[in-house]
Amino acid sequence: MLIRPLPLLNFFVAIVMFSIGLRVSTGELYDLLYARSLMVRTLVANCVLIPAVGFLLVHLFPLTPEASIGIMLLAAIPGTPIALQFTRMAKTRLAFAAAVIFVLSLVSVAMTPLIIQILPDTLRRSDRPLSSLLATVVLYIVLPLCVGVWVARRAPNLAPRMVLPLGILASVIFVFLMWETRSMRREALNTMRGHGTVLAMVLLLLSSMLIGWLIGGPDRETRRILATSTGMRSVIVVWYIATYCFPGTELYMIPLIYLSLMVPANLLLQLLFIRGRKLRPAQEREAA
Fold it and tell me: Is residue 286 a part of any domain in this protein?
């Protein structure tokens, strides 16, 4: 590898979270929070239904301990800044997409220490892994997000002009990260193959995307955004947990494999959605 992936990943996360903060307008965030039915469905789906799916999967398949913990963590922790790379093409609901990722990212931050406390033995009777994990989450997720919101409020004319270059930079870094980690992801796939591990993650991904699509209501673009935001679990936070709380284990491979699955799946969803959007006007003209 040309560089270590973790520092570049941290930089990518910080940039994207800052960009999300810039995109989230107070009005759109309030609209999402006050859309109680949609908000409740989103939270129930991400915090109850998908964790239940993960719990079911780890009991259906004869998984290794690392795979079971990793899949449960993926199911339990929603929200990932990577989703912004696949929702930025939303034409009419771009601010809504940023607001959803904003809310789910905050949920992931709130849930992380709670989930870790459920597994106290993984901390090896020391507070240092947990404190290091929380410091990393605050530094690369919470702080850039808050700074982005602050800049958007204090410099409303500047913030929109920063979004495009930051988006381009984030896209370049994301593609480079995918290239740099290709051997790691291939090794992870080969190592964890068997015991139904990959199949369990595929089912978790497809179930999460389907749940997100179903809770989105009649608006197709909203459904696509929620399918992406819900299906793309927080591989970054799970990677952080594996790094700080499960050193020396194969747990870090689980988010790598899920990343390899969720990127092409959501890319395919986006391409199908764009194709369908182009076909609908033609069909409407023929019907008229």
Answer: no
DSSP element (H, E) containing 279: helix 253-287
What is the number of residues in the chain?
A: 288
Calpha distance 89→171 (Å, rounded): 13
Average pLDDT over residues 57-85: 88
Query: For residue 182, how many other CB atoms are within 10 A of its CB?
Result: 12
Q: For the residues 52-74, what does the mean pLDDT come to? A: 92
Average pLDDT over residues 236-250: 84
Closest CA to 95 of 149, 59, 49, 133: 149
Name the pLDDT band for 90 (thresholds 50, 70, 90).
Answer: low
Residue 144 sits in a domain whose CATH number is 1.20.1530.20
Any domain includes 206:
yes
Closest-CA residue to 76 (of 213, 197, 207, 234): 234
Give the span between the Cα atoms of 195 and 222, in whole angstroms: 36
Q: Which residues, 6 or more positions from 213, have their beta carbon under 8 angstroms from its beta carbon? A: 223, 224, 226, 227
Phi and psi, residue 80, nearest 5°: -145, 135
Q: Which domain holds residue 121?
A: 5-277
Q: Which residue has the tokens 């009419």?
A: 92
DSSP-H helix ranges across the chain: 5-23, 26-34, 36-44, 50-60, 65-76, 84-87, 94-118, 128-137, 143-154, 159-180, 182-192, 197-214, 220-231, 235-245, 253-287
In a domain, 283, yes or no: no
How far is the C-alpha of 178 from the C-alpha of 256, rounded, in Å?
A: 10
Distance from chain centroid for Cα 84: 8
Provide the 3-class DSSP secondary structure of residue 61.
Answer: coil
